[in-house]
Amino acid sequence: MNPLLQKFDTAPFSEIKEEHYIPAIKALIASTKEEVNTIANSNDSPTFQNTVEALENTGIQLDRATSIFFNLNSAETNEEIQKIAQEISPLLTDFKNDLLLNETLFKRVKAVYEARKELSLNAEQKMLLDKQYKGFARNGADLSEAKKENLRELDTELAKLKLTFGENVLAETNAFHMHITDENDLDGLPDGAKEAAALTAKEKGKEGWVITLDYPSYIPFMKYAKNRELRKKLSLAFGAKAFKRNEQNNEKNVLRIVELRHKRAQLLGYKSHAHFMLEERMAETPKKVTAFLEELLEKAKPAAQKEFDELEAYAKKLDGIDQLQKWDSAYYAEKLKQERFNLDDEKLKPYFKLENVIDGVFTVAEKLFGLRFEEDNSISKYHEDVMTYQVKDAEGVLVSIFYADFHPRPGKRGGAWMTSYKPQQIKDGVNDRPHVSIVCNFTKPTASKPSLLTFNEVTTLFHEFGHALHGMLANTTYKGLSGTNVYWDFVELPSQVLENWCYEKETLELFATHYETGELIPMEYVQKIKESATFHEGMQTLRQLSFGMLDMAWHSSGPSPITNVKAFEEAAFEKTKLYPSTPETCMSTSFSHIFQGGYSAGYYSYKWAEVLDADAFDYFKQEGIFNKKLATKFKDTVLSQGGTIDPMELYVQFRGKKPNPDALLKRAGLI
Q1: Which of 132-136, 265-269, 442-446, 453-457 has the lowest mean pLDDT?
Q2: What confidence tens digit (pLDDT) does each residue in 549-592 have?
Q3: d(CA 392, CA 290)
Q4: Are 311 and 336 in contact, with CB atoms under 8 Å apart?
Q5: Which domains does the chain have, with CATH numbers?
Q6: Choice among 53, 464, 504, 610 that is catalytic
Q7: Residue 341, exposed/middle/buried by CB under 10 A (0-12, 13-18, 19+)?
Q8: CB 3.0-4.6 Å disulfide test: which of 150, 160, 274, 299 passes with 286?
Q9: Residue burial 575-605, b: 16+ Cβ < 10 Å; e: rest
Q10: Model-level pTM?
C-alpha cells in the first residue's frame, strides 16, 4: 500500500519509502487531470463556483505529496532522491503546463473574469479570480500552439537545470573539508568550535580536526582562526563552489538558466525575466527596483567605504597587513568589534542555548498572539533531529502543526528556510489548519556542550519563526492565497520584523540565561548588543545591495552577449566593490537563492522588506513591544490575511500610513 495515496493528516514520513514517490505522483497527476478535465469540459455555464473555486480545490493530495518530496530533497536528500527528483520534475512541469495551456479551461476562467463586475464577489474571491486569470494569461494561455509547445520545452529544461544547479552546490559543499593535524593551526578558535571540529573529524574517521563549508564550521574559523593562510584556503574553497573545472561546475547552468528565463519572458511578451517577475510584486518594474537599490547605495557607500578603510588600518596596525582581503574581513571585524564593545560571540553563546532560544521564541509568540507550543513525539518525523509540536491558541484549539529541524547533516542543503507540508484553507465549512516547518543549520551539541547559538543564529531562528507565524496564523478561505502566498517582496516582512525583538531587553530577559549557572544575561551585554547592532552596517548594506544588483543584472536584460560568468559578475559588483577580486571564486555559481530557489529578480526584496519592518517595529516601540492590542492588529491585518488583499493596503491598514524609508536608514545609523 502506498502511503502517499492514502488519506493522511500529518505527513506519514515513517511509512514512506523511496519507491513510493514516482508511482504516487504519477497516479496523483492522473487523478488531478481528471478533476481538471471535468471542470474544463462541463456543459454548465462558467460561474465563479463551478470554475474558479472548483479549480482552486483540485490536486490537494498531489500538492501534499510533492511538498513532502521536495522538502525532503532539501532537508534529507541522497543520491536516490536526487535521481527521483530529476524524473519527477519534468512530469510536474508538463502537468503544470497542461493545466495553464488548456484552452478550454482558460476560456471558462476568462468568461468569469470578463463578467467579474456583474458578480457579487467578496474581496478574497476577487483576488482569487484575478490571480487565477493572470496565472493563465501570464503563462501562455493566449499563445499559439507552436509557441505553447516552445514554452513547454523551456519550462521542462529549466526545471531540470535548477535541480542540477542545487545538486552541484550541495555536492561541492560536501566534497571539501580541511583536515588539520597541528593544534597550533587552530589558534584563536573557541573551545566549542574546536570540539565541533574534532567531532567532525571523528565522524569522518580521521585524527585531529576537520573544518567544512557548513556554516557552523566555516563561520567560526573565518572569524577567529589566526592562521591567515588557512582562512584564505577556506574562503577560496567556499567562494569556488561549483566554479572549479570539474563535473559540478555551474557556469554553463547559470548561462543556460538565464537564457531560458529570458526566452520564456520574451515568448510571453515581456522585455525581460525581471519585467515578467516584477509585474506581480510591490516594486512593479525593474526601473523602480534599480532606483530603490541605487538610492540605498548612495546612502550606504560612504559609510561602507569609511568602515572598510578603518578596518584596513586596524589590520595594518595589528598585524602589518597592507591589503585587506575577503578572508580577513570577519577576523578583523570581530577583533575590532570586541575592542570597541568588549563583546564577542563567545561571551554571548553560553546565554543562547538552543532549547532556551526555542522556549524564548515560543514565549514571544504566546505574549504577542496567545499561542502555546506542546511537543508531540507521536507526530511522524523524517529524521530523529526533527522536533514536532502542536500549536494551540489560548482556548486550546489547534492552530497548526509545527516541525523544527536545526542541525546540519550531509543530506541537507545549507542555509535556513521555512516551508509547509499542508496549507491552511476553509473548505466545506471546516477551517483546515496548516502544517509548517523551519529548517536551519546550527552547531550540533557535543559531548561537553549543548548547542549554543551565536547572536546571529538567534536572529536567524527568530527570522524563520516569523515566516512560520505567517504560515501558522493564516486564516483565509483559499489555500492559494493563504499564509506566505503573498507578493515576494512582502513575504519577508513577518520574518524580518520578528528579528527586532532579539535586540530588546524585555525579550532577552525571557530566555537568555547561562546554560551552566542559570544566570540571566548581564544587562551591560544587552546594552552592547544594541549598541553593536549597527556595527559595520554600511558594509552589510553594501553586501546585500551587491547581491540584489547582481540578481537584477542577470535578469533585467537580454543575456546573449554574456559569455563569461565571472567577468559579468565582476562588472555587476563594480559599484559595490570594496575588497580585491579573487579570480578563483564566483558568487553566481552557488547563488542558490536566485538559480535554484524562488528569488530570481527578487533578491532586492530583503532590503525592500527591511524598510517595512523598520517602520512597523518603530510602531511597536511607540506602543510597547508586547502590546497585545497592536499585536492583534498585526495578526489581523498582516499575518492572517495572506495574499487576499494588496500588500500595501494591508500594511496601511496596520500602520495607518505608507512606510517611511527613513526608519530603516535611522536604525542602520546611516542618517
Answers
A1: 442-446
A2: 999 999 999 888 899 999 999 999 999 999 999 999 999 999 99
A3: 43
A4: yes
A5: 3-142 (1.20.1050.40), 176-239 (no CATH), 350-486 (3.40.390.10)
A6: 464
A7: middle
A8: 274
A9: ebebeeeeeebbbbbbbbbbbbbebbbbbbb
A10: 0.91
